[in-house]
Amino acid sequence: MSEPQPSNGHIERISEMSGTIPVDSMLNSLTLDEKIGQLFSVPAYGSFTNEHDPGFLRLKRLIRDYHIGGIIFFRGDVYGQAILHNKLQRTAKLPLWVSQDMEFGAAMRVEGTTRFTPAMGVAATGNPENAYLKGKITAREAKALGVHQIYAPVLDVNNNPDNPVINVRSFSADPDLVALFGMNMIEGIESEGILATAKHFPGHGDTDVDSHLNLPVINHGITRLEEIELVPFRKAVNNGLRSVMSAHIAYPNVSTNGNLPGTLDESILRSLLIDELGFNGLVVTDGLEMQGIAANFSPGEAVVLALKAGADKMLISPDEMTAIHELKRAVQSGTISEERIDRSVRKILSLKAEHGLFENRMVNTDDLSYTIDTPEYRAISERIARESVTLLKNDGNVLPVRDVDYLNVLAVALSDDQSGSTGSGWARELRKYHNNVSFHVLDRRTSEEEIDEMRKDAMKADLIIIGSFIVVRSSQPMQIQPEQLEIINELTAGETPSVLMAFGNPYVVRDVPDADVHLMAWSASRSQIDQTVPALFGASHITGQLPIRIPGMYEIGDGIEMRQSTLRYDTPEAVGMSGDSLLAIDMIMQEAINDSVFPGGVVAVMHKGALVWNNGYGYYDYSKTKEISANEVYDLASLTKVVATTTSIMKLVDEGLIGLDDPVQQYIPEFSEGIKKNVTIRHLLLHTSGLPAFKVYVDELQTRDEIISAVRREPLISDPGEEYEYSDLGFILLGEIVEQVSGRRLDRYVRTEMFYPMGMYSTHFNPSAVGGWMSNRIPPTEIDTVYERGLVQGVVHDERAYYMEGVAGHAGLFSTARDLAVYSYMLLNGGLYAGERYLSDSVINEFTEQRSELSNRGFGFDRKSSGFSTAGSLSGPNTFGHTGFTGTSIWIDPDRETAIILLTNRVHPNRSYGSGIGEVRAKVADTVLGSIVSDKEQSL
Asked: CA 868 → CA 239, 598, 876, 921, distances in Å?
């Protein structure tokens, strides 16, 4: 059944008038009932609603019969709100003025939209541009949803740590900071044609009473208000502020009306806001259903007093029908004039005309999937959340947390609810960065048995992390409850280092002052959690500065800066890449699999310190029965030369234990005669030693000692430094030199010194010996019919390395794409990882720059060649890396801070396969580098 449209004629009349006749003429055409209705905004929930739902029918009746002029949407979802919006607009004679509370972004009320960190977190970033972007994106999404007015930003100065209602909703305890960030957010909102609303005038920051529950009273005089509370409002008004929301707070030492709430007090709205500050915009009441009003005034009395005080828009009356009836009687009795009502209605109609509502009041639902929660919007909101993280204390340099320092971590999610699920997303994020995290929830439903388990895990823990999810909610306690605090104190009483992460209420640190680390995160949203946990492990910069004062502990501006030194897991858009463009990798890999270049593989992309792509493709083999995941362990073949051997030489050079011009004879006596005595470490690294590319050897020699002895005795085929000949033999010797100098075989040395402390847990020689957790993730390489090894899986493919017990300087290393991304980031980060230095920046530059007159190679590392290159055509001239015979490659472009990793088993089932691997490498590289978005393209 189609919805009846009883008022089409009236709609057409008003629409025609708005286009040709001034608002005054439109106003004069309205009845008193219609004018009164325009003053009210009633609540609606933007979720699916059946046509016969009583709440929906009541809304329609209010709009149709009581001429309600506005809707304030509460919680809902994108399509539910848009559809209900259109239904209600079709019901209304005059277009509805739609408003919504969006302090934290549209997601504060609408599921599926972009969520932003609260105001205090935005101020903690120290960048007012972030407030502007928050306002702009929020307004864009609001506009797409048909919202015309946003109830934000909060201009309250939160200078009372015990404030139960404002807290992180305020930008700061510094009035100038509140003004600066507030005005930037207002400008962002209004740049999209949406009306911003500053609240709560004249200031709700210095109270310890929740106005939802009672009437707060602030006893400060006008001098104090001028110095603090009024500063942001005055500056915003002078900057063109167009809408203000009043506060349900009494100011007896400012007002001539005693303890009358500010919303109803002419001394506050008329005298102070309108006359003193010179504000001439729209004044909106805070919700009239709040107990600061409703407990002391009837619905109609509250509206009459609000109008007399200077308010224009009546928000959420507890009984609209009664309020409308009583207001009409007040006009009829002369208690309030119709002219006073006209003044407010004129403002409302003018705003509706300004926003074009008389021409088009409907939401275009077809556009919502393109204009809501875009990757660009998410990237900006996540960046702001990341930049908001504030480190106030780091005793003992607990951060950045490294697995090797804290093998066992206990994480406790502290909550004042009883869901039992608080912090589950936090725990998942922690486990991305640490392999051994035990997790518990401490809330109102936690049993004594569960608390005993916490105690046992605390005894075993090397680090205890408390995640406080006690957020500011109306009628809820702000601090840790005594019984919970007793347990927290017990868990952290010993010598074990502890961390307090405050998600949503920064003042909670007062309850746990002795924690070694205090980390502020401002909100308990999933986005904020995801962008905060990396900071704990050094995976993002920490630059936040405290915008408030925490008495006796921290002052405004406090904050410890810590630079990123660990790989972060993030989205392409977070680091300026296009995820849509990167999707082309899927097709490149699928086409290669279809063409039997390889049965499967993994592609990883690391850009600007973040692993933004790590996906598996295809299968272990051509039977296509076991799919590849991103976590598979591949035989790296010649990537061993750089990841293990060259890196070990770099470290030994850094430590002064090896010199590049050291004669090889210094370590290998067989090089002490003839032209071999002129061979240096430099020659071996540059493949200019004169050694041949390789020798089979294993036809006759099948023990490690025999093969190494043969390589040592191998005659040169050219004078040292005269010719370039890519040689496995030279790197076998380099592996032996590492053992000679360090006293440990190459595998043990590089794992102890590099791989294990860096968290590269899946990087091993002889991975099958590690255990099933490794060997079950290794795709097969060749089916060996020459040396009768059969299916080569879990052991090195290269025959010489195989007979050298799986450990050689040229081959034998296995790893994952993720581990290689960690390795790449360490090189791009100047040798630092997780706060520890593994290599010097100078030695990295020395080894990766061009170092040969005979080739474009660096020391050990290959570099992008002229003409066709498997590093792609878009990579820069300083790109370095290596390829492996089994179908592996790693290319690092330092100018773009990008690493491209491709792992395959292209020699399966035999070496006749995989001839197109070079083209695949180049296509993947060009796709990755082509997905980097320019600064101009990234701008909103």
From this structure: 58, 21, 13, 11
